[in-house]
UniProtKB/TrEMBL annotation:
UniProt source species: Pelosinus fermentans JBW45
EC number assigned by the record: 3.1.4.-
Keywords: Cell membrane, Hydrolase, Manganese, Membrane, Metal-binding, Transmembrane, Transmembrane helix
Cofactor(s) of this protein: Mn(2+)
Catalytic activity: 3',3'-c-di-AMP + H2O = 5'-O-phosphonoadenylyl-(3'->5')-adenosine + H(+)
Lineage, highest ranks first: Bacteria, Bacillati, Bacillota, Negativicutes, Selenomonadales
Gene3D superfamilies: 3.10.310.30, 3.30.70.270, inorganic pyrophosphatase (n-terminal core) (3.90.1640.10), PAS domain (3.30.450.20)
Name the record gives this protein: Cyclic-di-AMP phosphodiesterase
Superkingdom as given in the UniProt entry: Bacteria
Note on how the cofactor is bound: For phosphodiesterase activity, probably binds 2 Mn(2+) per subunit.
Length: 668
């Protein structure tokens, strides 16, 4: 490498020192001094020429190096194994390297949009932010690192993006994900009821057909199936085949339901499926919890824990009424012990209580009074049902100060206080959710299909989706609570009213046990005349009904949708009544009535004649309920937006139901 300027500077110092020495020598020997001067001048001239040559060589070297670095940097930018580009808000290219063309295969000019050659590029996600995004196009996966910059000339905001091809690693990751284990607990949820009354040959044929269909299903999904009880199975398969099952919406439910070998009741399955967990132990817990949840919702469905979320499939068959009351007797005996240990009993239903909620609460009060316990019913707010019930109970001393608010209940809570929650199990829909966090001893009695959200750590749960109403469940508990249990005419009438309102005058979801409960209440003094009095309507309500019916529209598939004007009083109650009325219209299978909520948002009352499960539709809107009676509250959205959602969801549900029936028929 050529020497720098500092070398010539040092040389001149040496020459200066030599000159000084020559001056001294002049005094001693002039001839030697002259000779030294000539030599010194020669050295100076030689050194200067050498310095010029070296300086020229250094400049040439630096120039060459500069050009090499510039060319190398340019080559590196153009030849890096990733795409580099600068774009604006519309995706217009300001600069890019050659790899962009190599990867995406089309010639692109500066000023054109990146979306023209790569429509999948996530421009909306990367604009104005620093970070990274992954996107795919055809069979390729790309990772985008993006950073906002400012153009110096016109101060325009741009984005510089670095795109790398991660197809190989993504494929490996996908293979790993697809191969992780999935666990499923499977149960024939009406095994005894299906086989009841069949000959031994028919029993064997039904069970063999179920086993055959399950064996075919696991073979299709490359799974392992183990039967560990006469109606219980365990299946293990991988994530890739779970995705296939999700796409097919677990059509094994429809295949099994289509079995008809002498059985009068369709065979139904319930499954709990779990995936994407850290250990096999957690998989097992999640799968078992999913099965319990599916059974709690009435069976004939699959509860899938996947990706940290819970999804439901199926739920089309009606919950089959149990023929025995063994569970009711056991629960009644357990309740007697639990109430006996309490110092005070509080009961609450759901917000905006109806007659089923209030009647069940009064039924629980019968048990508490029989054991001499202080009783209070916590209500959310004054409503039509509560007002009419209070009018009838006003002349009876035992019902004075029975109904209290949440604020009045708070000071009454002690460690031994027992809280009953009836006709609801969703904590946020209860009359006083704040009580649930204050009371340690909670009992849940409900007839709705179990939802994902459930009251935490209850002491006892009595959940029967096959029951017509919570009042029916409470009435059966009263039958077995105590042989010497007595209750008056008003107690029996309140329970009877709850059954009447939820069965639509015994026309919906009414089984043998429903009529047995009603007969028991009639023998105990229930007065149908008082029930009719509670159900009477004022003239304004009748006019409101007519106004809603006038706006109702009939859609294909037997679906009717109507909306309440915003000036209707007690809109929620009126909407529910109109939804019930619409089911009486020829050809109507599902009715939806929308109304404005008092605290903002849109409410939906949904009813079905039993052919379809409106609970599944309402769960899509964040609600829930029962197969024939459900509802939802949508906090964001206008009346027209929610109506459009309801129409789309119902059309999709009916279409899928028709496809599944067609597929089942084809297989049969």
């Amino acid at each position: 490498m050529p020497q720098g300027p500092s070398f010539w500077f040092d040389t001149r110092i040496y020459l200066a020192v030599a000159t000084a020495l020559l001056v001294v020598i002049v005094f001693y020997n002039p001839y030697v001094a002259v000779l030294g001067a000539i030599l010194l001048c020669s050295l100076y001239l030689y050194g200067r020429e050498r310095h010029k040559e070296r300086q020229k060589a250094l400049d040439s070297y630096l120039y060459t190096m500069s050009n090499c670095i510039e060319e190398g940097a340019s080559y590196a930018l153009k030849s890096l194994p990733l795409v580099m580009m600068i774009i604006d808000k519309e995706g217009k290219l300001y600069w890019h390297n050659d790899v962009l063309i190599d990867w995406f295969g089309d010639e692109v000019e500066l000023g054109e949009s990146i979306m023209g050659i790569c429509p999948e590029f996530p421009l909306d996600k990367v604009w104005g932010k620093s970070g990274r995004e992954v996107f795919s196009t055809e069979d390729k996966y790309y990772d985008v690192i993006h950073e906002p910059i400012i153009h110096k000339m016109d101060h325009e905001e741009l984005i510089i993006a670095y795109i790398s091809d991660i197809t190989a690693s993504e494929k490996v990751r996908a293979e790993c994900v697809n191969s992780v284990p999935v666990m499923a607990y499977i149960q024939i949820d009406n095994y005894d009821d299906v086989l009841q009354g069949l000959s031994e040959g028919q029993r064997t044929s039904v069970v063999a057909e179920v086993n055959k269909l399950l064996a075919e299903w696991v073979a299709e999904n490359e799974a392992v199936l183990k039967k560990y009880a006469e109606d219980m199975y365990l299946a293990v398969f991988n994530r890739q085949n779970l995705n296939k099952c999700l796409q097919e919406k677990f059509d094994i439910l429809d295949r099994v339901r289509a079995i008809h070998i002498g059985n009068k009741i369709p065979v139904t399955l319930s499954m709990g499926v779990a995936a994407d967990e850290d250990s096999v132990a957690i998989l097992g817990e999640r799968a078992q919890a999913g099965l319990d949840l599916a059974l709690g919702r009435g069976g004939d469905q699959v509860a899938v824990h996947v990706g940290g979320k819970l999804q439901f499939y199926g739920g089309k068959a009606k919950a089959v009424e149990k023929n025995t009351r063994v569970k009711a007797r056991i629960v009644a005996q357990a309740l007697r012990e639990i109430i006996d240990d309490a110092d005070r009993v509080l009961v609450m239903g759901h917000t905006n209580e109806d007659f089923d909620s209030l009647g069940a609460a009064i039924g629980v009060g019968i048990m508490a009074r029989h054991l001499g316990k202080e009783l209070h019913i916590v209500v959310s707010q004054p409503g039509v049902s509560l007002s009419k019930l209070q009018e009838i109970l006003a002349d009876y001393e035992e019902y004075q100060d029975l109904f209290i608010t949440s604020a009045q209940a708070m000071p009454l809570i002690t460690p031994q206080t027992l809280l009953f929650v009836v006709d609801v199990h969703h904590p946020e829909l209860s009359a006083a959710p704040e009580l649930l966090s204050k009371v340690d001893r909670v009992v849940v009695i409900d007839h709705h299909r179990r939802s994902e959200k459930f009251i935490a750590n209850p002491l006892l749960v009595y959940l029967e989706p096959s029951a017509s109403s919570t009042c029916e469940l409470v009435t059966e508990l009263l039958m077995y609570f105590d042989d010497y249990l007595e209750f008056n005419k008003m107690d029996a009438t309140a329970l009877y009213a709850g059954i009447v309102v939820d069965t639509k005058q015994f026309s919906v979801q009414s089984g043998v046990r429903t009529f047995d409960a009603a007969a028991y209440l009639r023998r105990s003094g229930a007065d149908p005349a008082l029930v009719r009095q509670m159900f009477r309507l004022d003239f304004e309500t009748v006019k409101s009904r007519a106004e809603i019916l006038n706006q109702a529209i009939m859609l294909p598939g037997g679906v009717v949708v109507a909306g309440c004007p915003d000036n209707i009083k007690n809109a929620q109650i009126v909407a529910a009544q109109v939804a019930d009325m619409l089911l009486g219209v020829e050809g109507v299978q599902i009715s939806f009535v929308l109304f404005f909520l008092e605290d903002g948002g849109i409410g939906v009352s949904a009813r079905s004649n039993g052919a379809f499960n409106v609970q599944v539709i309402m769960e899509e809107l964040g609600g829930g309920g029962h197969q024939t009676v459900a509802g939802a509250q949508v906090k964001k959205g206008t009346m027209e937006e929610v109506k459009r959602q309801v129409i789309e969801l119902s059309a999709k549900y009916i279409e899928e139901s028709a496809e599944n029936e067609s597929n089942s028929t084809t297989r049969g």
